[in-house]
Design goal:
The protein is an alpha+beta fold. The protein is 42% helix and 18% strand. It has 17 helices and 15 strands. The strands form 5 sheets. It has a 5-stranded antiparallel sheet. It has a 4-stranded antiparallel sheet with strand order 7-10-8-9, with helices on both faces. A hairpin with a 2-residue loop joins strand 11 and strand 12. Helix 13 runs antiparallel to helix 14 and helix 15 packs antiparallel against helix 16. It is globular, with a radius of gyration of 24 Å.
């Protein structure tokens, strides 16, 4: 085409990455002009280049003899619809840790590719920070929003886990939804669709009351179910896996003091066996340090043991590992809402076209660098960021304290949070934080070297249950203490 070029190939200054020459993937990233008679051939070449780019990237990874060192590897689950405007085509549902994510069916090559080409730096300080970010849906959403990527996440609202009449109306008003619309309720710290509830706005009040009001007399609720365990099958917990009752129990047992509600969004139809499915795309990535990174990962720690400096977005490089569709149980024509919307690899997978993967990578742009290159999460920063929800700020601070190396620093961080929540008005949200603090202190003690460490820990597990009798983690750890 050289003879017909009216404008030579160059980076487009109006692209998603603003013509950044270092961007590997970019929406509308290149521009050139040819005479009209050569337009068809030019389009054909562009299409071929797009397909070969994915293949070449995968091949270069496989051919490398030495494994690349990475700080974190994870996943992004998203909805994708190419019928929508460019900025609305992807909606990120959550991020996650690749070490605990499932890659089956059409996703299996991703796991193999990572294991063949990359080596995770398990001891890297940054790993704890990235794990902390990826595990909280509210924090992830807010970081995308404040770094200029609010358009790639669904509209979301967050409330303390406290039911009151009118809560459903407040949620509907903030999300600008009508009574026939669907919304998705999520626990901030759960993954693999655990506790994800899809409800119509007209049924939202009833659903919220069920989720946020556990049985007052929990022992009475337990009694017939414990009898069922002793007289029947020990594996029969009285609720079918992935049933509505199963997800309600996730809410009752969970320690996070807040929950989020999002507009329900959909993907374009993915055809499988002649039927259209509303799939969820999972793309995987590995984060590495650019050669010009400003720090070496062995950053200093402050008195709480947390990093006093982290890699900036400019220091982080994203290596894309591929993607695939996770399919729901039934196709889009079914009236069963959850079964046609919630996807899982175990119910089916499908490949993603290479050109679609390139578009997704481009649409995400530098979103992951911005997300994981965020500033340090100090107690003061979290308190300021979530001053309207102090219980949530306290919970995040406590979780961050558990990421430090030294046990005494962990305990000191937890004690600091405990002093701060003593000033809060008592509520179910405050009780969640208090329960988490006691359980976390018990975990630190149980991991110690004292001869009576489990006995010391056991007292904290009991205090955790006093604050929140339905805390499943505390109940489990009491069982572990009894076995010790």
């Amino acid at each position: 085409l050289a003879a017909q070029l009216l404008l030579p190939l160059m980076r487009c200054p109006f692209s998603a990455a603003a013509g950044d020459p270092g961007a590997k993937y970019d929406d509308n990233g290149w521009i050139f002009a040819v005479s009209g008679t050569r337009l068809g051939r030019a389009l054909g070449i562009c299409g071929a280049l797009g397909v070969s780019a994915v293949a070449q990237a995968s091949q270069s990874q496989q051919e490398s003899k030495e494994k690349a060192q990475v700080l974190f590897w994870g996943i992004v689950d998203l909805k994708y619809d190419n019928a929508k405007p460019v900025l609305d085509r992807i909606q990120v549902l959550e991020t996650g840790d690749g070490r605990i994510s499932k890659f089956s069916g059409d996703g299996a090559p991703i796991q193999r590719r990572f294991e063949a080409c990359y080596q995770l730096q398990e001891q890297a300080v940054a790993l704890q920070t990235y794990n902390f970010i990826s595990k909280d849906k509210k924090l992830t959403h807010d970081l995308f929003d404040v770094t200029g990527y609010g358009h790639i996440v669904p509209e979301q609202v967050c409330f303390p886990r406290v039911y009151y009449p009118g809560l459903a109306s407040h949620i509907a008003a903030e999300l600008h939804v009508s009574c026939k619309d669907l919304v998705v309720l999520k626990l901030c710290n759960r993954s693999r669709a655990a506790g994800v509830i899809i409800a119509s706005v007209e049924d939202l009040d009833k659903v919220l009351e069920e989720l946020l009001e556990p049985p007052e007399d929990l022992q009475a609720w337990f009694k017939p179910r414990l009898q069922q365990l002793t007289t029947g099958c020990a594996g029969d917990l009285g609720a079918a896996r992935d049933s509505h009752e199963d997800h309600v129990r996730h809410w009752w047992a969970n320690e996070t003091p807040s929950f989020v509600v999002e507009r329900c969004c959909a993907s374009m139809p993915t055809m499988c066996d002649g039927r259209p499915y509303d799939g969820t795309m999972r793309v995987a990535f590995a984060l590495s340090r650019r050669r010009s990174a400003s720090i070496d990962g062995s950053s200093e720690q402050d008195r709480t043991g947390l990093c006093s400096s982290t890699l900036t977005p400019e220091d982080i490089e994203v290596n894309w590992l591929g993607g695939y569709w996770k399919l729901p149980q039934i196709d889009m024509t079914s009236p069963l809402v959850r079964e046609r919307i919630i996807s899982a690899a175990k119910t089916g997978t499908a490949p993603v076209m290479p050109c679609v993967l390139l578009e997704v990578y481009s649409a995400l742009g530098s979103a992951l660098q911005q997300l994981f290159g965020a500033a340090e999460f100090t107690p003061d920063r979290l308190a300021e960021q979530y001053k309207s929800q102090p219980e949530f700020a306290a919970y995040l601070t406590a979780r961050r304290s558990m990421a430090v190396t030294e046990a005494e620093q962990r305990l000191q961080g937890l004690r600091d949070v405990e002093r701060s929540i003593s000033k809060f008005t008592h509520s179910p949200a405050q009780a969640c934080v208090e329960s988490f603090l006691h359980r976390a202190r018990g975990v630190v003690l149980a991991r110690g070297s004292a001869a009576d460490r489990w006995k010391q820990a056991e007292s904290h597990f009991h205090l955790s249950l006093q604050a929140m009798p339905s805390n499943a983690n505390a109940l489990f750890l009491l069982g572990m203490a009894a076995l010790e």
